[in-house]
Amino acid sequence: AVAAAMRLGAVLSALRPALPLLLGLSLGCSLSLLRASWSHGAAEERCLAPGPPALPARGAPPEAADGRPVPGYEDFRPRIVPYYRDPNKPYKKVLRTRYIQTELGFHERLFVAVLTSKATLNTLAVAVNKTVAHHFPRLLYFTGLRSAKVPHGMVLVAHGDERPIWLMYETMNYIHQHFGSDYDWFYIMQDDTYAQAEQVKALVTHLSINQDVYLGRAEEFIGGDEHARYCHGGFGYLLSRSLLLKLHPHLDSCRNEILSVRPDEWLGRCIIDFLGITCVSQLQGQHYHTYELAKNTEPEKEEEEEFQAALAVHPVSDMTLMYRLHKQFSRIQLDRVYQEIQDLQMQIRNLTALTPAGEAGVTWPVGINAPFLPKSRFEVISWDYFTEQHLFSCPDGSPKCELSGASKADVSEIIESAVEQLNRLYQPLLRFSKRQLLNGYRRFDPTRGMEYTLDLLLEAATQKGHSRVLAKRVSLVRPLSKVEIIPMPYVTEATRVQLVLPLTVQDLDFVANFLDMFAMNTLDTHDNALLTLLFIYHPYDAQRVGQVDVFAGVKAMVGELEKRYAEVKIPWISVKTEVPSQVKLMDIVSKKHPVDTLFFLATVWTEINMEFLNRCRMNTISNWQVFFPVHFQEFNPALVYRGEQTASSNTDFLRDGHFDRHSFAEACFYNSDYMTARTKLAADILDRDEVLESMEVFDVFLHYSGLHLFRAVEPGLVQKYTLRSCNPRLSEELYHRCVLSNLEGLASRSHLAMALFEQEQANST
């Protein structure tokens, strides 16, 4: 018995560590079996219980009595559609859209229509355009004038009939025809209405697009039904896309059958009679607040809560009142934002105190990302030193330059802000005034924004009139604000690209490689791209072209390409000049092509590929933007590898080289944009053609066009190392940039240091 007890005790002691696991497994299995039995019993009771049918489970479609889904029910759950291709039909390449938003049928959020007239087009409509138009994604003005002169910066639609009802009818038709399938919400207002754009945009984000919405300031019809309401046009009103689609078939009937003097009453009666929908001032928990202005109202003195919460204010009698309203509402919105920032900062302080780091974990300023912490000395962000007159870190590399333009405005604003913050902190005990900026430092931290450190010489005055001069160091941060998506015109990848390749005698050794890459990446792939060669003859070579043509080999290679690709023609243009100015050469090419041609100005070292050509098409927008890519220049392999095997381009892509920021030779632009800028340049320089020798196409667009100049690194443009010949006949700046490009393209600092070290070692032995 004792031995059995000892054996039992040994077994229990061995199983003791596993007892919690066994108990947990047993308890889990028991609960799962018990839950399954309850679910089964509940299901049986639901099937057998008398009474009304139970609601369908969440996500399941409602069913009729015969078990089929109810008609009109739209199931939003994803379904896999099997792919089937008829073997008897020829295969066609499917052209898909560039953006998934287009393919999935997503709509833009809000479209705004402003009704104006002949009397207010150049006054109130201009005031609306200057105050709130840039806050809306899309805004159009509608008028009944036949040939109205459109003010600058406005998009006007003229219907040709000034009758109010006809204007409303034509406007609704136009909106449905041109924008009905592109937008979810349509906001209609008059030009004597001030609307808080940000509040209106916030309102539509809280409303469901699946309902028929007619939202505004509800008004009763004169002598009409007590329950019927129309939306007052003076305060604006919101229509959903679904309501607009249902209303459009009845607009003709409304125009013929409904008589009214006011266009907003006419539209409201049309919606009620044919759709049975009345205007409401609140929907889905959202209120459409309005405020009616009295005569001789001063917006600066309006402190009522109803005024501050208003989405729309009416009537606005003149332009000055519109601007005053915009200023007052901007101040109200700014105060709300500042108060919200303070509340969030207080919450951050309170919560950070409960973290393991405690109060030491609070960053400055509160709520802004902590400064970037470099992991090595190569990642340290350097500070730029400045004074009130000079900057000691200049864009051109010089040690000292005059502070001007945006940099001067930035320094002045930051000093003024620093003194203002000091006065806000120490008043009323002390009053500070700036004497001088002793030292200034600034750097851009990509994680938080622009940081400043200022040593200020200040005069501090007390309440009793005593003053003293003292030096004080302050730190400021201009944080990165909310990132906004800039609206850009839509472009496609189907545009034909016209490559332009200028060639000199020094480029002859590299033409064969260029033509091979062009044939492989564009002609073999049937890319929509053409090539034009520009042969630049020196005057001496031009005189001997009948005996010896220096470009005869290139022309033979072009002939071989045209034989291999029968449908391809590669034209060339011959030019005689001593100074191959890029602008003069482009003038010749521009005259021989249509105005809608998309040019890609290339170099003989450029390796053409489909990826870059597509980016050239997407980044170049007619009458909007030109594209100047920064190509990747590989280093000199003799210095980088020093006899070792070169790195594989697949595994070490973009490693042994740098992006050549000194080169502006490659460019993508439309011929129409170049001709417009070139016309302005010609009017500026008159007949001084020698000025063109100191300019590039980049300078023409930079100084003589209002287009966006998109300059970005382009990993799709990789050039092999070559020592380029710099023409001393060009301007000093162009020649200097060419020399710098050659020097920086030799190798990195580490590679150059290693080469010098090995050379010294060899000399010492």
Which SSEs are present, and which pair or pack?
Elements (H helix, E strand, L loop, with lengths): L1 H14 L3 H30 L51 H5 L3 E8 L8 H8 L7 E5 L12 E3 L5 H16 L3 E8 L3 E2 L1 H9 L8 E3 L1 E3 L8 E3 L5 E4 H7 L3 H7 L5 H13 L6 E2 L2 E2 L2 E3 L12 H4 L3 E3 L4 H34 L31 E3 L3 E2 L9 E2 L2 H22 L3 E16 L3 E14 L4 E13 L17 E7 L7 H13 L5 E9 L1 H5 L8 H13 L7 E5 L5 H10 L6 E4 L8 H10 L5 E10 L2 H4 L16 E3 L7 E4 H15 L11 H8 L3 E12 L12 H13 L4 H16 L1
Parallel strand pairs: 1-2, 1-4, 2-3, 12-13, 20-21, 20-23, 21-22, 24-27
Antiparallel strand pairs: 4-9, 5-13, 6-9, 7-8, 10-11, 14-17, 15-16, 17-18, 18-19, 23-26, 24-25
Helix pairs in contact: 4-11, 5-9, 13-15, 19-20
Protein name: Hexosyltransferase
GO molecular function: glucuronosyl-N-acetylgalactosaminyl-proteoglycan 4-beta-N-acetylgalactosaminyltransferase activity; N-acetylgalactosaminyl-proteoglycan 3-beta-glucuronosyltransferase activity
Membrane topology: Single-pass type II membrane protein
Outline: globular
Round the mean pLDDT to the nearest integer and report it: 84
Whole-angstrom Rg: 36 Å
The CATH topology of one domain is: Spore Coat Polysaccharide Biosynthesis Protein SpsA, Chain A
InterPro entries: Chond_GalNAc (IPR008428), CS_glycosyltransferase (IPR051227)
Protein name: Hexosyltransferase
EC number: 2.4.1.-
Keywords: Glycoprotein, Golgi apparatus, Membrane, Signal-anchor, Transferase, Transmembrane, Transmembrane helix
